[in-house]
Amino acid sequence: MLVVCGSKETERQYLQGLRDHLRNPAVSVVVRGKACSPTQLVEYARGQWDLNRDGYDEVWCVFDVDEYPDVAESAVLARRYGIRIAVSNPCFELWLLLHFADHRAHVATYKKLLPLMLKHVPAYDKTRIDFARYRENVAQATVRARTLDPSGEEHARNPSTGVWRLTDRMTDP
Description:
Layout (H helix, E strand, L loop, with lengths): L1 E4 L4 H13 L7 E4 L4 H14 L7 E6 L6 H11 L2 E6 L2 H6 L12 H11 L17 H11 L11 E2 L1 H9 L2
Parallel strand pairs: 1-2, 1-3, 3-4
Antiparallel strand pairs: 4-5
Helix pairs in contact: 2-3, 6-7
């Protein structure tokens, strides 16, 4: 499984922590961070997959809605290429917040969500994610995220996150 993240730090550090925690020999995850727009990320993932078609059973892109205008376009592109996406609206920190709280109210931006996150992780730093803080609540975050979006593919809904689909695949391939 190749996972390409739309941020160089937050998503990559969390998913590497989950991968290391699972120690599932059936799962081989290569996590790469690539800061760019969602469409550029999907194109990058396709290029990496083309370089090693036999090396990956699945390719995922993980990115935020944030203020990117090309989220819907990137979803269509990913579907065309057979790439799965895990999109968070507005941002990946929603997924992290769901480890501690059941949040269902609209939140416009990362800056609006950050104070909610700081209530649970006072020293939260998006450049230094310690997976140990989250590992005991991954199942709870999954249940909460599924409640927000049962399909895990509705990136237009706020709040929503499809990260649970990826973590489920990593946990039980």
